[in-house]
Amino acid sequence: MRGNYEQSESLFTLYKEMSKGFNMPVYNCIGNHDLFAIYEESPESEDHPDYKYGMWERHFGDTYYSFDHKGWHFITLNSLDVTENKRYQGIFHEKQLVWLKEDIAKVNKSTPIIITTHIPMICTYSQLNGSEGSRTVNNASEVFKILEGHNLKLVLQGHIHWKEYGFINDRFHFLTGGSIAGNGWKGRRHNTKEGFVKIRVSGSDFSWEYVDHGWEAERLKLAENHI
User: Fold this and answer.
1) Beta strands per DSSP E along 71-218
2) Are 71 and 204 in contact (CB under 8 A)?
3) Residues 177 and 158: beta-carbon distance below 8 Å
């Protein structure tokens, strides 16, 4: 977000190389830290070809897309845009909503659907912590309206390093994942263990678990050894 072309390019390249280690397809979802040079302090301007979504698109293609796999329809959405004062915001822009209407029109209403988005579409963080503002996509309701009448099963989301699960009025489930890095590799954030969500899909249903990858214990062990 703060620009620096060489450093940003090296991180995208490193991630792509590391992803080759997975013996399976990898589908990526754009997050706020993937928006290139959007902050005021960036040495690169809005005229740079990689500005905002540009670097992502050059490396990974479209920032929103869909695909089918074993009878399920997967939709990856771009929940980010840039404000006039050069900050990021959670919003689904109009062009994407038009695309989503066209995409979902081709999907049988009985087909189970999973949405993946970075900024949460639904979240209780603000209510639970009494914080001002929103931790969710401003116009998430527009997506739910478009998918009304379809078999939306699950919304996958992240961003706030917060683990949360919900089931909305017998209609669909949502999962907010924690963070591999926790609080920037300095322990937990919001008391959420450093880890990731693992989901198993079977037939027309799914199950999930949160996997604590053990870095916190390893970090504490390393700290003890230095005392």
Assistant:
1) 72-76, 80-82, 88-90, 112-116, 151-157, 164-168, 172-176, 195-202, 205-212
2) yes
3) yes
| CA 92 – CA 140 distance, rounded (Å) | 7
pLDDT tens figures, 70-90: 999 999 999 999 999 999 999
Instruction: Tell me the β-bridge partners of 115.
Output: 75, 155
The Cα–Cα gap between 52 and 120 comes to: 20
Token pair listed for 181:
């890095």
Helix (H, G, I), strand (E, B) or coil at 169: coil
Burial of 210 (0-12, 13-18, 19+ CB in 10 A): middle
CA distance 117 to 102: 19
pTM tops 0.85, yes or no: yes
Q: Rounded to an integer, what is the distance from CA 227 to the centroid of its chain?
A: 38
Q: How far apart are the C-alpha atoms of 192 and 189, rounded to whole Å?
A: 6
Query: How many other CB atoms sit within 10 Å of the CB of residue 183?
Result: 13
The residues pairing with 157 across neighbouring beta strands, listed in sequence order, are 176
Amino acid at 158: G
Rounded to the nearest 5°, which phi and psi values hold at 43?
Answer: -70, -20
pLDDT (tens digit per residue) in 181-194: 777 777 777 778 88
